[in-house]
Every structure is written in C-alpha cells, then in structure tokens.
C-alpha cells in the first residue's frame, strides 16, 4: 500500500490537456512525512520512431517548429527530431508509430522494433514515450507526408548518412532528448 497521500487537486487549466496543482504528503527516507506541492501537466503517452535505411546507410528525421523551444532560447524554434506523436484513445503504441510516420514522412515502415519506454519530463508531466526503431526503403514512399494541415504542421524531411548523424550526435547538435536516446541506442547496438 502506498504511503503517498493526495491531499488536494486544483485544476489550473483544461484547455487541451489538464494542468493541475497537486498537494500531497509523502515520507522521506527517515519516515518523516512532508507536505509538498507540484504542478503536473497530464499529457497523453506518445510513440517515437527512428527511421533507418540499412541499404543506403541513411537515417530519416523530421524538422518542425516547436514553440516551447523558441520561447526557451532556440532562435528559430525548429528542431530536428525522430517521428513522434501522441497515442490516440484505443490505439496501441505500434499503431501510433505507423500512423505518425506515414503522416509526417509519407513512408510505410517495416521491422518496427520497440527498444524501450521512458518518461519525458517526470518532474512535471505524465507523458510516457514508447521508443521504436523501424526500417524504411525508398520504395516505401506511399503518401505526401509533411504532417496534418489541419494541425498546422509543416514538416520537412531530413535524411542523413549514418556517419553524418553519428558525428552530429557526438557534437551535441541534436537537441531533442527522444532523438538523442534513439540515435545513441542505434549506434551502440546496430552499427
């Protein structure tokens, strides 16, 4: 039985996803109880996919505008990242991975492999990432890609060779943690 007690939940916003101010009580390592307060953003879980073309030794990433990064010092607000999207109700992480890749890139993927799961920002958000690596090939292009117009997405596709992406990873040029994790896993275990 948990020794953590939720004392109060105050809704700060429910515009898109709930943001709540939560007061709770939990014991420290010595068993002494403390009242604490946290703001928690209740975001849905997500699927993230690194796309790999083994034949051509290429990785496919996306580039899109991310307002929070712009507000926090990213001069133009654009990030290069792995395909990702929130899991819709009733969808499995694998279904989301396939849907998001097709929406963002126009490609159908194969050999989808789950390599792990992780919380994105555990001190302030409930979001949980399901991390995948999948194969793609030039012949797998089935649609336009670029994201969903109704969501205001304008996604650019970026392909780069294994060596270039490994070097950019080493130089700290990627600034999206999901992408960094997937690239590190790929280069440690696959190449």
Question: Key features?
Answer:
191 residues, alpha+beta, Nucleoside Triphosphate Pyrophosphohydrolase, 2 domains, 7-stranded mixed beta sheet, 21% helix
Structural description of this entry:
With 191 residues, this protein is α+β, with helices and mostly antiparallel strands. It folds into two domains: 5-41; 46-189, Nucleoside Triphosphate Pyrophosphohydrolase. The chain is 21% helix and 39% strand. It has four helices and ten strands. It has helices spanning 67-71, 93-105, 162-170, 177-189, and strands at 5-13, 19-27, 33-41, 46-53, 58-65, 78-81, 83-86, 110-119, 128-135, 156-161. The strands form two sheets. Strands 4, 5, 6, 7, 8, 9 and 10 form a seven-stranded mixed β-sheet that branches. A three-stranded antiparallel β-sheet has the order 1-2-3, with no helix packed on it. Strand 1 and strand 2 form a beta hairpin. It is elongated. The termini are far apart. The mean pLDDT is 92.
């Amino acid at each position: 039985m948990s020794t953590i007690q939720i004392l109060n939940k105050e809704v700060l916003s429910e515009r898109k996803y709930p943001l709540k101010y939560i007061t709770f009580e939990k014991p420290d390592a010595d068993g002494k109880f403390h009242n604490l307060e946290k703001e928690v953003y209740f975001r849905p879980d997500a699927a993230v996919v690194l796309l790999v073309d083994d034949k051509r030794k290429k990785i496919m990433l996306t580039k899109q505008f991310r307002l929070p990064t712009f507000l926090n010092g990213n001069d133009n607000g654009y990030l290069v990242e792995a395909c990702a999207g929130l899991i819709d109700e009733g969808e499995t992480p694998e279904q989301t991975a396939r849907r998001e890749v097709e929406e963002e890139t126009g490609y159908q993927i194969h050999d989808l492999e789950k390599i792990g799961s992780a919380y994105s920002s555990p001190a302030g958000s409930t979001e949980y990432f399901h991390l995948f690596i999948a194969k793609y090939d030039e012949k797998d292009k089935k649609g336009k890609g670029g994201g969903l117009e109704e969501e205001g997405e304008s996604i650019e596709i970026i392909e780069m060779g294994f060596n270039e992406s490994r070097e950019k990873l080493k130089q700290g040029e990627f600034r999206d943690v999901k992408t960094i994790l997937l690239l590190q896993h790929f280069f440690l275990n696959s190449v």
